[in-house]
Amino acid sequence: MATNMRGLTQFIADIRGARVRELEEKRINKEMANIRKRFKDGNLDGYQKKKYVAKVIFTYILGYKVDVGHMEAVNLISSPKYSEKQIGYLAVTLLMHENSDFLRLVVNSIRKDLNENNEIYNCLALHAIANVGGQEMAEALSEDVHRLLISPTSHSFVRKKAALTLLRLYRKHPEVIPAAEWALRIVAIMDDMDLGVVICVTSLVMALAQDHLDAYAVCYQKAVDRLRRLVIEHEYAATYAYYKVPSPWLQVKLLRLLQYYPPTEDATLKNILHEVLQTIMNNCSEPSRNVQHNNAQHAVLFEAIGLAIHLDTNSPLVTTAAVLLARFISSKETNVRYLGLDTMAHLAARTENLDAIKHHQGTIILSLRDKDISVRRRALDLLYSMCDVDNSELIVGELLRYLKVADYGLREEMVLKIAILTERYASTYKWYVDTILELISAAGDHVGDEVWYRVVQIVTNTEDLQPYAAKVVFEYLKSPSSHESLVKVGGYILGEYGHLIANEPGYSPMELFAVLHSKSQFCTAPTRALLLSTYVKWVNVFPEIKEQLLNVFERYRHVLDVDLQQRACEFYALASRADDDELLQNICEEIPPFPPRESALLNRLNKKHSDTEDKRTWVHGGKDINLDRQLSRRGSRKPTLGDVNGNGTIHHGADAANDITQSLMGLDLTTSPTSTSQSPTTHLDPVSAPASMLAEAGIPRLTVSPNVERWFEKLCYSSEGVLYEDVQLQIGIKSRYHGHIGQLAVYFGNKVSAPLTSFTTTLHVEEPEAISASFAKIAPSTIAPRTQTQQLIHIECKKPFSKPPILSVSFLAGAHQTIAIRLPVVITKFLEHVKLGQADFFERWKLIGGPPRESQSVFPISLNDAGHIDLPKQRQVVSGHSFNVLEGIDPNPNNLVGAGILHMSVDGKVGCLMRLEPNREAKLCRLTIRSTSEDVAAEVQKLLHKPLSADTAHT
Amino acid sequence: MIHAVLIFNTSGVPRLTKFYTPLQQSAENLTQKIFSLISSRSATLCNFLDAPELESFLNQKDADGEKLRVVYRNYATLYFVFVVDAAESELGILDLIQVFVESLDRAFENVCELDLVFHFDEVHHILSEIIQGGLVLETNVEEIDHAVQTAAKARKESFASANPLSLGGGGVGSRSSGLQTPLGWLTGRLTGVGAR
């Protein structure tokens, strides 16, 4: 402790005793000189070094610049004494930043401390990396940090720090962290018993998941489950209750994490989430006296409302939330008002129906005049988000009125927002022009160039607007003091469209010229240049004032500014040509409409987001903007050809190629290869694709072994049995099917004498449009030694499919293990028996006809010991695949004939007939499937063929 | 993410400055700026302040609509100020400030401004048990206290041999052990109870 160094205490006391700043500086300079000398002389022992470095740190904290002690701090780090090491690390984290050259010198000491058996040393090292770690440390140390995070022997306080340190390294240098491959292992820690560890790991997962949504998809169910345990089951260590609220930090983090994912489709998770959110909202209905308790509860509540809005803006939860928010925005507590407005802006930015919010429009507008600027800002954001065609005139009017009294810091943003709203929700052109010109004249200095560019663009592209705009802008210019931006707009519009109004009284060319030119002397050179261009346009349309205009050019020919002078000379020459000369006319041709382009205003407002920082889950503005944003986020996650057409949106390869060729030739190219724009994930094969790609897409790698295949095959034609077994885990299945619906009971048995922790089950469906599979509830995260747990899976068959769902199971038993196997859910499971007579059968058989609706194969079969065909086995396979074996249809008793109807919820029912003809002498067998659907015939043939054939069957 | 943790007293003297993002300008300017923003706000205003003015100080890349917010809390003579971005919950940070103060209070037994002056290293150690690299490490006061005690013990063990002048002691809470520090002029208590 600092005070145990007598010299340091004296130093601090001296500085405190200094009555004026000069004395303080003198004392510090003296001390620094002394320290510099001591360091130069060298030969200091650890205690002295520590003392001097501590003095340097204290000086630094007082706000003085220090330039000594870095080297000594580096030395202290490798000291074997903890007290010296600690001061060394403190100095490194305070005095150095991530690009400091000194850090190179400490990498090795830090690594040594990371690998030390002493956890306190580990912590110091981790903490240092988390504070100053840059690219170099990321490359050198990320493996060590990761090891500390996942090692089963690490203490929880080490793992907490390791998680955050890893996060820091990822932010600084994402390339060194194989985020996708580590995904399952890291997410598994979210099941940890220690909530402190869970908080830290959730922060880490949140950052990684934003860039690797699919790879980290498992965290969704983990987060939901943890919320359920905290909020509903009240399952947490008592010390983690903060003023009676279960770990508000963790709750907020989890609720935020869920907002980075698209709303879940899984009915089970949806129900749990609904219950959790409902409970959180109910908890807040009775406000308590304690400030801290209230704070914590509201922190959770606001995040929960955010999530409810994200999940579904039409749900009853959001209706409840809207009522709560309405109460908050008129609360007496400023904090609550502030957050109420903020969250309401979120709601306004996402919802389709603004009525609930519009109800409180009056209150919100009043908030613009709140005594607190923070609240005023939030009110502005909310008004911006809730504006639509109906209330735009009112809101923009209010904003304009407020603009004149608003804080300076707020004005520029307000101007942009007003300009955008005016443009987006203009009901009449007249209103648009009036408002925007009033804006320009009122806000003056705060109007960015984008605003008046945009006005010009819109007026140019809207013919009806031109005469009116010209008149109004002229009226504004008449007022004695007009802002320069207004002069620019005026110069441009009057130059282009002045002739449209010149015949009306009060707008004669002479008057236009007089008013505009009177402003010229107050303007900067670029504006004057613009006015010169206006004049040359007038020379063309107003011959009556040509003389005055020539006069102006004449005078400007001698100004110092190069641009002005050049323009004046050129315009003078142009204007002095003979009257019948066509050159001037051609040059002053009316400008064509601008090509439609994205508003520069929005670009300015929504600047690009940085790479590994936490992203916002929504932006201010209407729901369209948020939708666009989500799409572009998805698009930009996998960079394709990138920013080809220059306006910031990323197109997939084929689209971009299309854009270019179209703009070049204006031809309709209908044969462009659109298939290339398909998402790459659909082509990944879970057996052979590279591990990193699989991990990135969140597809589990299938566990392969002869046994796995045998178990799977057997279960394809039987309803219960073992699906997987190894020394630790056994998975058994019982199944039941009815029509297109199936139910699977999966039994997980722990065979060892230690618990399996962080037990996670997920389902992966490769053809989600054809088959769906979901768990009835979230699996318990622990399986006690030598016990079994059961999970129900609901399955629905929508269309013919060929890839059974994959069940992936991961757990911690010492190390982290993952098993991924296909569930024995194949298309024949959805066949139902049908009874057909001989005549009926053959009639249908013929009706269906040959290929492609017939699928046939001939394959070798093995005979049993007695040299006979294994008829019972064949019969078992065929009836196991749910065919009704029809007797007495085929004259040959060895042949098998069957029929079934396939039930699918989307594609309806499909009939399916089969015939199996074994031949003992040739040891061959012919299998014929006929079905009204080609896909079904081929798939069923494949399924039946496999267990029957001698080449492929696993006996 | 938390970009900075600052403590200064009601006259604007910094007592703790910790930045988790490299600064673009001098730390003194920043604290002065924040102090001038905050000290002018009356007690009934909210604890949050949008701070677009501060973005030039911190190396903040222009994220979309990403605004820094200042969350602060006033305890007796001290302001506790956190500069955070939009990824943090404002009320959550307010809670965290409370946790920080409660942890300080535990370590120093009725913490006061002078403790922060004379035990600046200890304050940094406590902070490092709560926030690491701009992210929340632990919010449980028990856990924080435990970690601080463990470190203090380790320091104490290594201390006696390191300091020839040591009078022994050196654990947390033994601030007056054998030393005459001018504790007489305590400026005021800042324990959590009266906090706004």
From TrEMBL, chain A:
UniProt xrefs under SUPFAM superfamilies: ARM repeat (SSF48371), Clathrin adaptor appendage domain (SSF49348), Subdomain of clathrin and coatomer appendage domain (SSF55711)
Residue span(s) of domain Clathrin adaptor alpha/beta/gamma-adaptin appendage Ig-like subdomain: 713-824
Alphabetized Pfam families for the sequence: Adaptin_N, Alpha_adaptin_C, Alpha_adaptinC2
SMART domains with a match to the protein in the record: Alpha_adaptinC2
Keywords: Coated pit, Endocytosis, Membrane, Protein transport, Transport
Protein topology in the membrane: Peripheral membrane protein
Location of the protein in the cell: Membrane, Coated pit
Keyword Membrane: yes
Function: Adaptins are components of the adaptor complexes which link clathrin to receptors in coated vesicles. Clathrin-associated protein complexes are believed to interact with the cytoplasmic tails of membrane proteins, leading to their selection and concentration.
Family membership noted in the UniProt record: Belongs to the adaptor complexes large subunit family.
The protein's name in its UniProt record: AP-2 complex subunit alpha
From TrEMBL, chain B:
Location in or out of the cell: Endomembrane system
Keyword Protein transport among record annotations: yes
InterPro entries: AP_complex_ssu, AP_mu_sigma_su, Clathrin_sm-chain_CS, Longin-like_dom_sf
Major location (coarse): membrane
Keywords in alphabetical order: Membrane, Protein transport, Transport
Keyword Membrane recorded: yes
Domain AP complex mu/sigma subunit: start-end pairs: 1-153
Pfam family, any one: Clat_adaptor_s
Family according to the record: Belongs to the adaptor complexes small subunit family.
Name used for this protein in its record: AP complex subunit sigma
Organism name: Somion occarium
Organism taxonomic ancestry: Eukaryota, Fungi, Dikarya, Basidiomycota, Agaricomycotina
